[in-house]
Amino acid sequence: MTTPPAGAPYWEPAELPPHPQLHGVVTADVAVVGAGLAGLSCAYHLAVSAPGLDIVVVDAEQPAAGASGRGTGLLGPRAGPSVDRAVRRFGPRTARRMHRASERAVRDVLDLCGRLGVPCGLRTGEQLMAARSSAGLVALARQARACREIGLDVPVLTSAGIRDRVGVPYKAALLYRPAATLDPAALTCALARACADKGVRFYGGSPLLALRPGDLVGPELVLPHGRLYAGQAVLAVNSAARTLDLPVGTVLPLEVYAVATEPLSAPVYEALGGGAGRAVVDAVPMAPYFRLLPDGGLVAGGGTATVLAGLDAPRLQALRERAWSRLERWLRCLRPGLAGARVTHRWSGRIGVTGDDLPVVGPVQGFPDVWYVGGCGGHGLALSVAHGAHVAAALLGTPEPGEPLPWHRSRAPRLPVHGPARPLLRAYVDGLGRAARRAC
């Protein structure tokens, strides 16, 4: 069993629907495994579109216990690799479609928040992809040129334009809209309650142990205390695909880190953007980012990621402490008024990444009527909701018109998670973190 993510996040889970353990034999029309945003979005869209459908959601813990409740609440348009890399790999037309899809995903989450009608700390604003190092400026220039060439409305900000928004000495930035910041746990819990109100049944504390083809129709899901038989199944389990030995390629589990501060002084809070729902992300891969909180505090994340394979608990905890310390040092350097800001929360979460930075959203090969969703690479707040809606439409036989997007696929590339090549993979990820910290 893997060591669970550490630390209590800033977000506190809201009221949840009842989620007893699954015992005995349970049947359903559709089984959704994973009560994060992707799984709950799928269940919600199924329940809305087909009210008579018998839907069961099962989770190893409870809704919002995983990445969906432990994120940092940045809602912005990003899907897969950066725009310039997407143009090189897929061509300008597909790269444009990818970015437009991510913009629609952001708007869909904003619409969903309105439909659910619950407070989730939502503040619409802007997301700045900013740079202050030479490496970051080079990356930013490539992305700006690609956006311009394929007709995306992504303005370039000078240092003066950045200072008008956030008082941090970045040299240039790309301005992404639509964007927002919110409480990811509140959104996830609200989505769970909305599903329950529409008749969706929940089971918690029931990790999936195995998946088998059913004797007659649909799959058999093996759980610690029972069996779940369904006509169709959706495995919104992200990087847990590796432990289940699902044939979806490598969705590598990485642990990422975040910290939150006490409320800042009024002048510092306003200088960093105040009531605007902005987030600032460095242009270098894996670099730190920050956003402000409605209560006057600040959340920072990024800068370090840990390959979990092969780590024992003491070593992992030591790496966590180091990552949190780095984040604290970084946020104190954003501007002088943050030097004395007290950190009140430190936590980690798990994301799933693939070798080509693209999610996997498609049927599981060898298992009729089973779909998998995962591998958003840390950009899953908007994409997870979009992926859940996409899979729900496919299960109901009403797929979206048009060509499939590059992440509508059944497998990701294989990565050397085991064996003698594993240290090379860890060295590569560690190297990205060191490069990001040098750039800051």
What does this structure look like?
It contains eleven helices and 17 strands. With 440 residues, the chain is an alpha/beta fold. The strands form two sheets. Strands 3, 4, 5, 6, 11, 12, 13, 14 and 15 form a nine-stranded mixed β-sheet that branches. Strands 1, 2, 7, 8, 9, 10, 16 and 17 form an eight-stranded mixed β-sheet that branches. Helix 3 (83-90) packs across helix 4 (92-116). The longest helix is centred in the first third of the chain and has 25 residues, at 92-116. The radius of gyration is 21 Å and the shape is globular. It starts with 23 loop residues before the first strand and ends with a helix. The relative contact order is 0.20. It holds the Pfam family DAO. InterPro entries: FAD-dep_OxRdtase, FAD/NAD-bd_sf. This is FAD-binding oxidoreductase. Residues 29-393 form the FAD dependent oxidoreductase domain.
In summary, what is this structure?
Residues 29-393 form the FAD dependent oxidoreductase domain. The chain has 440 residues and is of the alpha/beta class.
Shape: globular
What distance separates the N and C termini? 36 Å
Biggest pleated-sheet summary: 9 strands, mixed
With helices defined by DSSP (H or I, 4 residues minimum), what is the helix count? 11
Order of helices and strands: EHEHEHHEHEHEHEEEEEHEEEHEEEHH
